[in-house]
TrEMBL record:
Entry-linked PANTHER family: 2-NITROIMIDAZOLE TRANSPORTER (PTHR23523:SF2), PTHR23523
Keywords assigned: Membrane, Transmembrane, Transmembrane helix
Spans traversing the lipid bilayer: 46-63, 83-102, 114-132, 138-159, 171-193, 199-219, 243-265, 277-297, 309-330, 336-357, 364-387, 399-418
Protein name in the entry: MFS transporter, CP family, cyanate transporter
Record organism: Pseudomonas taetrolens
CDD domains linked: MFS_NIMT_CynX_like
Organism lineage: Bacteria, Pseudomonadati, Pseudomonadota, Gammaproteobacteria, Pseudomonadales
Pfam family, one: MFS_1
């Protein structure tokens, strides 16, 4: 496992700022690794930034919009508790199973073109799950999860390539957009369903429209920098690198807690006495609060010598919020929801930041992103499934504390390894 190179003056002073770290990344290629082709400068960075934000806004509504309506959908279609659990697990599982396709598609068609095409597939999947009854519901959920998995792998590489000097800040902006999309869908889906004559199908299907809008604004990105995609690199050694596995496990385990919240928090709160609208608003409020730490946590974490302390803090807040929402009196529910949101906004944005900071260049970042999200989201899918299984066996929610504790402890241990200021030890080969 290789450590980051020393500053030019050979001092042992730790790298304290993201700009310093990124400057070292540029000059730190190992002697036996080919120097990657530099991407041409972005002609209109504001247009790329707008496109990235709009794309990111679409990477959570397909997941968070289902939870507030899960009881209504299950009752309408006659789904059992096990089928409802499968419905919350399938999209997350597809995030992991289809993530390895992203680098292959990008090498064949170009990253920007793949993002555009998959956005349209995402919109189609969201529409499909609102049609054709139970078959369409599950098929559309699979399509939506697969689409989000592919796009989610590609965007960190674009950030590393085109915003290398501001990777932490841009990762925070990207994460903020993810959180905003999730919060909007969680809070607005039930009111939209009520407005359209209590039609859960319309309440879910309306989230295809933002995907179409994002595709329109992303279209200009497909016609530029074509030469940058003709040179491809194969990255070897990730699966043998302990640091890569620590990044992957941290991504997967913290994501497992996030998708438990997306898939089950409203149902848990309804079980504690809230109405579906109230439960959706609490979840939406918790997710909207993530905007604060989504932007600030990566920025603050790159001001120290490594990210371990930041990981411990945000994971501790996440666990406190989860236990509060599950066990604490309902009078203080909003306070615990805010703590949960602040914690989860930081855990996810730090997970994305670690992919960038543990990589020497954009090629390694793209492949580490594929591993962390491909394997990580497969691990993450077990969380929502376990919640559904435990709920079916026990008939209640109290036993979920054990799931929260085990997953949270594992995420913290993996994060302590992934948060060290080192790079993954891999080789990049031109193909």
């Amino acid at each position: 496992m290789s450590r980051p190179p020393s500053p030019p003056n050979d001092s042992l002073e730790p790298v304290r700022h993201l700009d310093d770290l990124e400057e070292l990344l540029i000059d730190a290629e190992a002697d036996d690794e080919p120097v990657p082709l530099q991407a041409p400068a972005v002609v209109r960075p504001w247009l790329l930034l707008l496109g990235l934000v709009l794309v990111a806004l679409n990477l959570r509504p397909a997941l968070s919009s289902m939870a507030p309506l899960l009881s209504e959908v299950s009752e309408s279609l006659g789904l059992s508790a096990a089928q409802a659990g499968l419905l919350t697990t399938l999209p997350v599982l597809c995030l992991g199973l289809f993530a390895p396709l992203a680098p292959l598609l990008a090498r064949r068609f170009g990253t920007e073109r793949v993002v555009l095409g998959i956005l349209l597939v995402l919109g189609g999947g969201i529409v499909l799950r609102s049609c054709l009854g139970e078959t369409g519901l599950f098929a559309g959920s699979i399509l939506a999860g697969a689409s989000i998995g592919v796009i989610g792998v590609l965007l960190p590489g674009i950030i590393k390539r085109d915003f290398a000097g501001h990777a932490g800040t841009m990762t925070g902006v990207y994460t903020m957009a993810l959180c905003l999309g999730a919060a909007l869908a969680a809070g607005a889906t039930v009111p939209l369903s009520d407005y359209f004559s209590n039609s859960w199908a319309i309440g879910l299907g309306v989230w295809a429209l933002p995907a179409v809008v994002a595709a329109i604004f992303w279209l200009p990105q497909t016609s530029k920098r074509q030469g940058a995609h003709h040179v491809a690199y194969r990255v070897r050694g990730l699966l043998r690198d302990p640091l890569a596995w620590q990044v992957t496990l941290y991504m997967g385990l913290q994501s497992s807690l996030s998708y438990i919240v997306f898939g089950w928090l409203p149902s848990i709160l309804i079980g504690r006495g809230l109405t579906p609208t109230q439960a959706g608003l609490v979840m939406s409020g918790s997710v909207i609060v993530q905007l604060v730490t989504a932007l600030s946590a990566p920025w603050l974490a790159t001001r120290g010598k490594d990210q371990r302390l930041a990981i411990v803090l945000v994971m501790s807040m996440t666990l406190a919020g989860l236990f509060g929402c599950l066990y604490a009196p309902l009078d203080g529910l909003w306070g615990w929801a805010i703590v949960l949101g602040l914690g989860q906004g930081g855990t996810f944005s730090l997970a994305l930041t670690l992919i960038v900071l543990r990589s020497r260049d954009a090629h390694v970042a793209a492949n580490l992103s594929g591993m962390a999200q491909g394997i990580g989201y497969t691990v993450a899918s077990m969380g929502p499934f376990a919640v559904g299984l435990v709920h079916e066996i026990t008939g209640g929610w109290e036993a979920l504390g054990w799931i929260f504790a085990v997953v949270g402890a594992g995420a913290m241990v993996a994060g302590l390894g992934a948060g060290r200021a080192r790079y993954v030890n891999v080789r990049s080969e031109k193909i």
